[in-house]
Every structure is written in structure tokens, then in C-alpha cells.
Amino acid sequence: MKEKITEHSIRLFEKKGFSETSIQDIVDSIGVTKGTFYYYFSSKEELLMEIHFRYIDDLLNHQEKILKDETKNSKEKLYDIVFMLISRVKSQGPSAKVFFREMQNLSEERLSQIIPKRDKFRFNIQALLEEGIEKGEFRSNLNAPIIAFGILGSANWSYQWFNPAGKMTDKEVTDIFVEMILQGIESR
């Protein structure tokens, strides 16, 4: 039941927004009582926190697998991370929207539990870039922290505009993004 409440809430939060969705809306959508909701969650914010943890923990777990793959170089790992972020729009689009859009509805105390996980994801990308610079795969004059923010900014924002059922696949979008990241857009 906890999973059902969470999944229905994700869809409601995506459609109506966190603030505009009431606990009554959530329980009505699955035909249970508020008592059932409060058995699993102490508040709507705790539910939002659960959604955030699930999303970022899933990303971190997949990122860790990519980074530990010793058969791939830094460029290939970077591609896999960007692909993972873009493909999550297809597999977890509503969760991505809720994760990025509704963070402002978390208290400072709860944010202090999420921010370090988001930072870890970014620092892992930064470390991958630094490793690639060290190995000569990337230019030596790159500012790895700023490049990491740029990669995350472009890939994470895709939840707003990427349509998995549209003309381009997640792989095609990833190919364009990674080419832009690695080659730039300047004519040579």
C-alpha cells in the first residue's frame, strides 16, 4: 500500500503540484482513508521526502555502477551517466519532475538530508571529469566543477522538454548532448 500511495502521489504532484494536492486528494485517488495514509506517512512532506530519496538514491546507485566499470574510459562513463539522466525522463519522468520542481516544499531539516546526496552525484561527475583530464581524455584547461554543473543543468532540465514518445529517442538526445559536451559547438 505504501508503494501505491507513493506512486499515486507522484502522479498527483506532477499534475497539480505538491501544494495544490491534499492528502484527501491522494487517498481519494486510491480509495482508502486518511488513516491508511497516516499509517505509512506522518505528513505530506514526509511522503515528498520519500519520493526524493527514492529518486536520488536510484540515480546514485546507477551512477556508482557506471563509475566502477573498469572496462570503460572516462568519455564512455560520462556518456553512460548522461544517458542515464535522459533515459530517466522516459522511465521516471513524473518522479524527475517532482524531484526537481518540488524541492522548495521541503523544510530546511529535510533539505539537509537531500542536498548532500545531490552534491555527491555532482562531485562524482566532477571527479570523473578530473580523471579524464588527468588521463588526457579531456582538455587540460577545463574547469571541472563548472563543466559538471553544465552537464547536470542540461541533462536534468530535459524533464521539462524531452518527450520520450516524440521524434527523437533518449539515445539520440544523449548522442547530441555528449557530442556538444565533448566537441563543443564551435565550427572548426
Could you name the key traits of this structure?
188 residues, mainly alpha, Arc Repressor Mutant, subunit A, Tetracycline Repressor, domain 2, 2 domains
Write up this protein:
The chain has helices spanning 2-16, 23-30, 34-40, 44-68, 74-101, 108-134, 144-156, 158-161, 170-183. With 188 residues, it is mainly α. It is elongated, with a radius of gyration of 19 Å. Helices cover 75% and strands 0% of the residues. It folds into two domains: 1-41, Arc Repressor Mutant, subunit A (Orthogonal Bundle); 44-183, Tetracycline Repressor, domain 2 (Orthogonal Bundle). α4 packs parallel to α6, α5 (74-101) packs antiparallel against α6 (108-134) and α6 (108-134) packs across α7. It has nine helices and no strands.
Chart the SSEs and their pairings:
Elements: H1 2-16, H2 23-30, H3 34-40, H4 44-68, H5 74-101, H6 108-134, H7 144-156, H8 158-161, H9 170-183
Helix pairs in contact: 1-2, 1-5, 4-5, 4-6, 5-6, 5-7, 5-9, 6-7
Rg (CA only):
19 Å
Q: In whole angstroms, how far apart are the ends?
A: 57 Å
Q: What does the average pLDDT come to?
A: 93
And the CATH topology of the largest domain?
Answer: Tetracycline Repressor, domain 2
H/E series:
HHHHHHHHH
User: Can you name the CATH architecture of the largest domain?
Assistant: Orthogonal Bundle
Note poorly predicted spans. none
